[in-house]
Amino acid sequence: MSEDWGDLITQQEKGVGALNIKKDDGPSPQPGGAAQEFKDQPEGESSESTEDTEETGQSKGEISFLQKLLRTRLVQAKADIEVLRKDPTSPLYSVKSFEALHLKPELLKGVYDMGFNAPSKIQETALPTLLADPPCNMIAQSQSGTGKTAAFTLTMLSRVDVALDYPQCLCLAPTYELALQIGEVTREMSKHMTGLQISLAVRAQKVARGEQLASHVIIGTPGTVMDWAFKFKAFDIKKVRVFVLDEADVMISQQGHQDQSTRLQRALSPDCQMLLFSATYDADVMSFAEKVIPRDPVVIKLRREEESLENIRQYYIECSNQQDKFQALSNIYSAISIGQSMIFCATRKTASWLAEKMTGDGHAVGLLSGELDIEMRASIIKRFRDGKEKVLITTNVSARGIDVEQVTVVVNFDLPMTRDLQPDCETYLHRIGRTGRFGKSGLAINFVDGKRSMNTLKYIEKHFGRKINKLDADDLDAIERISS
Ligand SMILES: Nc1ncnc2c1ncn2[C@@H]1O[C@H](COP(=O)(O)OP(=O)(O)OP(=O)(O)O)[C@@H](O)[C@H]1O
């Protein structure tokens, strides 16, 4: 995925046609830019939110996009794959290398240039089927970060004929930012495919009446794609050979998107290859998937990665109030050298208070919270990933999907609770499961202030069957020892 928000922002300034992304020195959200479109969209429900304390102002699309920005690499997924074929006699192919897929040499070069040495689990299972002839429809589910985008991008680029000057591949994404991300991956992967042109069908991009697109791949949001296809007739949807619907689980959170996607799909030629990707396979996603991907799709489901707390040393510190917690935090930061850390607070108010206190103490702190617009949050994530800030203070917004390699310490300034104030073990796992990945050891420190939070801690300890040791915030030697 793109690591450069600046690139994404500048793309909005370009006209329809080939992606011609100008490099930008850093995040420079444009006031009034196209990302502003999101403010008008309905707010999504985050299962991580609680009414008066948490982030409630974000759509699923925004969350998905921010998680992508926080992720720096492929999530390792377990091998448990379920493949449902309508034709039980079909062999289940699997490839262990990109060479085995017999890609066009220029495409293979693009894949290697992106640093992909071998296909991921979902890619190794899906790609042989995706690239087989005759083309076959597919519904594929696997958790975020397992390589789905690369899988369908590769499919589109494998099937495109650069000699033909009209759109042949159409990819729908639920939001502007997600569409731009896919555009970025497609651009990178196709960089050796001379003449290949990509158009972004997002609200900021206009087509003139009567204009005929000569680009080969269109990536966009359903509403704009519909306008281009039906209102402006800027391309002939019947000539599309590969249709991809990405992030179906996010897409269905908006009825309008569902309807638009379905209308577009119905206008496709019957022999167009239709693909749907989703990070989850709840019943509502599957029923939408079956509606929008008819005609015997192959269904691939990859079991969710199970995170483990094995490599993470967990501690708790008893404090009497917020100020006391801050003091404990200061002791920790003075006693151990921390690469990068994330601190989770229950409320925006606490998060802002803490950010101010820590900044006053000379720490380089980023504050990520829901009241900021998406451009600001993207820019904060980029700065943190680039190491410009060592501490990221946040509420639950970023608990999931964080995979910033340098994060060695996670602090629960407040323990995670559900909406009805019960211990939230799942969020705890997502928060601290982000350090200590890939065999590295991580450190999680929990602040406990009072009976309720002590009960929460005990509950979490019991739930995971792993001891959370007590730490004395005034014993600097002990704090020093836990870091070694
Ligand atoms: N075969 C591969 N080898 C190494 N890295 C890969 C490979 N495939 C994808 N990646 C990288 O892993 C990360 C996640 O991949 P990708 O974005 O395709 O996942 P995804 O399943 O589409 O995630 P989401 O559901 O959030 O869209 C990206 O940074 C991508 O560049």
Automatic annotation (TrEMBL):
Disordered: where is this region? 1-62
Enzyme type, top EC level = hydrolase
This protein's source sits in the domain of life called Eukaryota
In terms of Pfam families, this protein maps to: DEAD (PF00270), Helicase_C (PF00271)
**DEAD-box RNA helicase Q domain spans which residues?**
96-124
Which residue ranges does the UniProt annotation give for the motif Q motif? 96-124
Q: Which residues form the Helicase ATP-binding domain?
A: 129-299
Q: Where in the cell is it found?
A: Cytoplasm; Nucleus
Q: What is the protein named?
A: RNA helicase
